[in-house]
Amino acid sequence: MNIKRKYVGTLAIVLAGGIIAGCSETTSPGDGDVVTLDFLTFADPAQLKVYQRAVHAFHELHGDEIQVKLTGLSTDNYTQTLTTRLQGSEGPDIFYVQDFSMSTFVQGGAALPLDEFLEGPDSYVGKEDFPDDIWVRLIKMA
């Protein structure tokens, strides 16, 4: 597993909820290189502060190796903006989607399953740590 995918998965677990990892690149940093991940979410100002705290906590753990650029958009046209960016190969590395729109991103190949990561040695949580119904809904939609 390359370093970018490892940290995308780790950040996804840290941020939890509707975060889905979608790596647009597969490069690994060399000595001293810092990987930057683009994280797009919709949020009002109060929600964005929560995401910023999570990103700050992630930087405390991994800031020497990886930085996260957080971009928050209003809910108006968020899904359309995200879809357009992904179709134009300008999609973020990490993005938030709600369960009702997940199947679109899975079928389009923009969202990667986290199964392998969750079952691997780099994850500190497993699928069993999430409510069962979250996986059932996503499987049915895909």
Automatic annotation (TrEMBL):
Q: Which residues form the signal peptide?
A: 1-21
For the keyword Signal, the answer is yes
Any Pfam family hit: SBP_bac_1
In terms of domain of life, where is this protein from? Bacteria
Please give the InterPro entries that the UniProt record associates with this protein: Bact_solute-bd_prot1 (IPR050490), SBP (IPR006059)
Record keywords, A-Z:
Signal
UniProt keyword Lyase, yes or no: no
Q: What is this protein called?
A: Extracellular solute-binding protein
